[in-house]
Structures are given as C-alpha cells and as structure tokens.
C-alpha cells in the first residue's frame, strides 16, 4: 500500500571463515600493501616533497608573500615581483575561501536531503521508490563534466531557462560587510552578481549535484537494518513525528550521518570536473582544485603542490575521521549484539 511503513526484521548469521593458506594470505597482504604504497602513499609523499622544494620559507611564501625590510630601496624588477607575488597570494586565498564557503553551503543542504531521502526510502513503501533510489545514485554514474555541461545547457545564455537565469540578480554572500547603523540595518552586501552560469552560484549548484548521494547512501543501509519498530513504538505511545525523529531516528544514525558528512565534505573540497565547466575559468571563481590547475599551467609547480598539500591534509584528516567513525560504529554494534545475547 502506498505510504505504508516498511517493517523489517533482519536476521544475521555469523559463520566462521575458513583458514587461509599462509602463502596465499601473505601474497594477498603483500599485493594490497604494494598497491597502496605505489598509488597512494608515494604520490602523497611526493606532494609534500614538491611543496617544500624551495624550503619552508618558500612554502609559506605561497600563502603569505614576503615583505621587504622596512626602509629598503627596491628596484623596479623587485617591486614588480613583490606585486606579482601579492596578486598570486590573494588569488590563492580567494580560492581557499570560496572552497570553504561552497562546502559550508553544500554540506548542510545535503544533510537535509540525505536524511529526508533515506527516511523516505527506508521507512515507507510508495510508488516511485525504486526510481528515487536510482536518481540518488545518478551522480555516481554521470561524469562530473557532463553534469557541468547540463547546467550550462539549462542555465546558460542560450539554455532552456537562459532568459530567466541570465537576468537573475543576487547578492554575493561572501561580500557581506558591516556598514553600521547609519543606514538602518548594520549589514549589507558589497557586491551583486547577475546570472547563474560562471558565478559562485553555479559552483554551488554543481557541487550539490555531485555530492548529494553521499549522506543518503551512508544512512540507507543502517536505516534499512534498523527497521521501523522503534519509531512505531514511539508513535503508539503518543510521541509526535518530530519528537520521534529527533529522539529515536537521529540518535540511531548519528555515526552514519557523520560518516556521510565527512565524505560529502571531502568531495565538495576536491570536486574539479563539474566546477571547471560552470566556473568559466574566471579567477574569482577558482576553487582550490582549479587554482592548482592554473598554477600548474603557469609552470609554478612548487606553488601548485603547496596548495595541493592543503587538499592532501584535508584528505588525511578525512581518512582518520572515517576510520575513527568506522571503529566507533563497529564497537557500538558489538556492544549491542552482546547486550541482545545476554
């Protein structure tokens, strides 16, 4: 029946795994370690080696340009180099700020969508449920470049919604400034954008598309295994839908939700294909991956690796957080099974 809750009982059986031959086990471990070393560990080490190729001062100069001694007389060449370094540093920080700003918008929206989609597909049976699950997985099967082109075809000057999108004026949220109470409200936007494509708004839309499956897919298996018994019991005792959601559902999926948020954040930081298409390669629209590409194309390899090292550190942090959550989830499940056995 459409809209009916799905009641599920999950049966698990623990079967002992057959012992592996020592030679086979050692070979498989060696292959796994070799693969991880060649394709992950060595490239990661190389990023930091290249980033510090000009020393620690050279690394810092990518983010903070060197300042001449006070009172020093500079030649025209030195003045030009310092000005160029200041411009490059400003663009790098602009890319870092835009990347963080996009993630700050994309991740909360995907939390809301992921919770709603996982709740709908696991707690209720309705027509179109299979189609909704397929749509959730769509970004996994579509190239990010194709996704960016779709946004251009829809919202570009000659797109389906081009006439509306090209005349849309919206304030730049990153330009919010304090202006005091002389004009009434103390906050105001210093800059407006007209249009969608080739603006930060297009980058946000493209990032939402490529990242929205992560939270939903992290929650769906856990919600399916938990079933609906606890929610139905809470509703039968008089709890409202919102109270049941916040007191029963969210605490049960908090670790899976955090796991999906971490993956979504990492993908938002590192997205390149779709963002490259909709950004227009304008300097003010550069995110960190686009900034790395431009530095590399300018043969500024050390600066490119320095910015890449920031992304690498984010990836390492994501891996550590992901491992910690998996360990915490496994321990909670083990304690739950032990409690049920007793």
Describe the structure.
GO terms for molecular function: ABC-type sulfate transporter activity. The protein is mostly helical. It has 15 helices and six strands. It folds into two domains: 22-51; 76-156 and 196-341, MetI-like fold (Orthogonal Bundle), CATH 1.10.3720.10. A hairpin with an 8-residue loop joins strand 4 and strand 5. The protein has a two-stranded antiparallel ribbon with strand order 1-2. Strands 3-6 form a two-stranded antiparallel ribbon. Strands 4-5 form a two-stranded antiparallel ribbon.
Could you give the distance between the termini? 37 Å
Order of strands, widest sheet: 1-2
CATH class wording of the largest domain:
Mainly Alpha
How would you sum up the global shape?
globular
Explain the layout of strands and helices.
Blueprint: E1 4-5, H1 22-51, H2 55-63, H3 76-123, E2 124-125, H4 129-136, H5 138-141, H6 144-155, H7 162-165, E3 169-171, E4 176-178, E5 187-189, E6 192-194, H8 200-211, H9 213-226, H10 229-236, H11 241-252, H12 254-270, H13 273-279, H14 288-297, H15 301-341
Antiparallel strand pairs: 1-2, 3-6, 4-5
Helix pairs in contact: 1-15, 3-8, 3-9, 3-12, 6-8, 6-13, 8-12, 8-13, 9-12, 10-11, 12-15, 14-15
Q: Descriptors for this entry?
A:
MetI-like_sf, MetI-like fold, 342 residues, transport, mainly alpha
């Amino acid at each position: 029946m459409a809209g009916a809750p799905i009641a599920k009982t999950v049966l698990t059986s623990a079967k002992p795994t057959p012992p592996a031959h020592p030679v086979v086990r050692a070979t498989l471990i060696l292959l796994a370690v070799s693969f991880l070393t060649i394709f992950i560990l060595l490239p990661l080490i190389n990023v930091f080696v290249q980033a510090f190729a000009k020393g620690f001062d050279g690394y810092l100069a990518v983010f903070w340009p060197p300042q001449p001694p006070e009172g020093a007389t500079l030649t025209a060449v030195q003045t030009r180099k310092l000005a160029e370094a200041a411009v490059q540093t400003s663009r790098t920080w602009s890319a870092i700020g835009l990347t963080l700003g996009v993630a700050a918008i994309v991740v909360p929206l995907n939390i809301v969508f992921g919770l709603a989609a996982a709740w709908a597909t696991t707690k209720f049976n309705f027509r179109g449920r299979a189609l909704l699950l397929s749509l959730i997985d769509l970004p996994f099967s579509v190239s990010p470049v194709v996704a960016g082109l779709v946004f251009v075809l829809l919202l570009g000057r000659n797109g389906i919604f081009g006439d509306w999108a090209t005349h849309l004026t919206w304030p730049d949220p990153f330009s919010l400034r304090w202006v005091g109470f002389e004009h009434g409200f103390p906050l105001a936007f210093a800059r407006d954008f007209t249009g969608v494509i080739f603006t930060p708004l297009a980058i946000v839309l493209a990032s939402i598309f490529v990242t929205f499956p992560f939270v939903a897919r992290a929650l769906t298996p856990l919600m399916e295994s938990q079933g609906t018994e606890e929610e139905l019991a809470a509703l039968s005792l008089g709890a409202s839908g919102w109270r049941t959601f916040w007191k029963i559902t969210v605490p049960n999926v908090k670790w899976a939700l955090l796991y999906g948020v971490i993956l979504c954040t990492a993908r938002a930081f590192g997205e390149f294909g779709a963002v490259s298409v909709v950004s227009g390669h304008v300097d003010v629209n550069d995110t960190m991956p686009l900034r790395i590409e431009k530095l590399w194309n300018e043969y500024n390899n050390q600066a490119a690796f320095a910015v890449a090292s920031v992304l690498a550190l984010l990836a390492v942090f994501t891996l550590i957080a992901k491992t910690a959550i998996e360990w915490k989830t496994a321990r909670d499940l083990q304690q739950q099974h032990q409690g049920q056995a007793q």
